[in-house]
Amino acid sequence: MGTLPIARQFDEVSKELVAKQDLLVAAHTERDDIKHELSRAEVDVEQVVARIERDEKRLSSGQGSPKELEQLQHELGSLGKRRAELEEVELEIMVRIEEVDKRIRELDGECNSLKEQVGDLKARKEDELSSLESSAKRTIEARAELAPMIDGELLSLYEKVRASGDGIGAAKLVGNQCMGCHLTMNAAELTRIKALADDEVVRCEECRRILIRLD
Q: Helix or strand or coil: residue 3?
C-alpha cells in the first residue's frame, strides 16, 4: 500500500495537515498569552487613570497648601506621561493580537483545505486498493486454472526465479531489451536467442528472469 503513488501523496498531505494543526494550536496558545498580557496592561492603565482622576479632584477642590497643590500638579504631569507610555504598550499588544488573529485565520483556512484533500485522497486510495485487490484475486484465479497446464519443471523454475526476483519470475523481451531489468542485449546474444526453438526456455543473462519472446 505504501508503494502506491496515491498512498504516498495521502501520507504527505496528512503529515502537512498535522504540522499545520500544530501551528494552529501554538497560535491559539500565543493569542491567549498575549490576551493575558493585554489584561495586565489594561489594569495598569486603569490604575494610573484612577490616580489621575483622584489628583484632579483634589486639585480642583483647592484643598491643601500651595506646596501640596504644586506637588499634585507635578504628579499629574508624571502620571500623564506614564499613562501615555502604558497606552502605547497597550496599543502594541493589541496590534500583536491582530497579527496572531490573522495568522490563525490563515492557518484555519489551510487546515480546512488540507482536510478536504486528505478526505479526497483517502477515498481515491481506498478505490485503488479495492481495484488492486480485485485484480489480484482475478490473477490468482487465472493462475490456478493455468498452472496445471504448464510443465512442472518450468513452473518450478519460474517459482524459484520469482522468489529471488522481486516477485517477478518472467519478463518480456521487447526488441533487444529485457523488460525485467531494462538492460539491452548485444547483437550476438540476441541472434543466439532468435535461433532457439520456440519451446526452449530462455533466461536473461543479467537478471536471470525467464524471457517471454514476442517475435
A: coil
Pinpoint the residues of the chain covered by CATH 1.10.287.1490: 5-145
The structure's pTM equals 0.62
Contacts of 124 (CB under 8 A, 6+ apart): 6
User: How many whole angstroms separate alpha carbon 4 and alpha carbon 108?
Assistant: 29
Instruction: Kindly state the cell numbers that stand for 99.
Output: 497579527
CA–CA distance, 87 with 7 (Å, rounded to integer): 54
- The CATH architecture to which 5-145 belongs is Orthogonal Bundle (1.10)
Concatenating the DSSP letter of every residue in 32-68 gives: HHHHHHHHHHHHHHHHHHHHHHHHHHHHHHT-S-HHH
Question: What would the grid cell of residue 213 be?
Answer: 519472446
pLDDT bucket at 166, cuts 50 / 70 / 90:
confident
